[in-house]
Amino acid sequence: MPKKAYLAEHLSSEELKDRYRSSQDSVETRRWHLLWKISLGWTIKNAAVAVGLDYQYSFRILKRYNELGEEGVKNLKKKSVEHRRGKEPLLKEEQLQKLKEELKKRPADGGIWTGPKVARWIEKETGREKVWNQRGWDYLKKVQIFLSKTETKT
What we know:
Structural class: mainly alpha
Number of domains: 2
Largest sheet: none
Number of strands: 0
Distance between the termini: 71 Å
Low-confidence stretches: none
Radius of gyration: 27 Å
Helix content: 55-70%
Order of helices and strands: HHHHHHH
Shape: rod-shaped
Protein name: Helix-turn-helix domain-containing protein
Mean pLDDT: 87
Number of helices: 7
């Protein structure tokens, strides 16, 4: 018979079950589920299989919970979502508003707005040396979707 895992008494079995059922984050839900199963006397291996986690990962969750309590169960990667990755957008919010107003009018050469025309407008507005035509097209689509939504509301 496998050795029973040590689970620090930060929370009772019933409290672990409540945390498991009330958690909004899917990663934390699995972790609470694992800990609840272990508190019921399940082995780490069997609890990990039941919850759908790897044994080593489950062992690390248990170790962190024993050391840190509830803080050890929290999903720390959730915080990294707030960090914007990649480059800054080409247009700031006020420039985007200006583009929306500009697209309501006809372009300087007449005709219709195209990706390359929007790209040239962005170059003038931002002072950038080169804005690719695709970026102009992206902004044109972005603004047209916004404009079509606002027009249907009125």
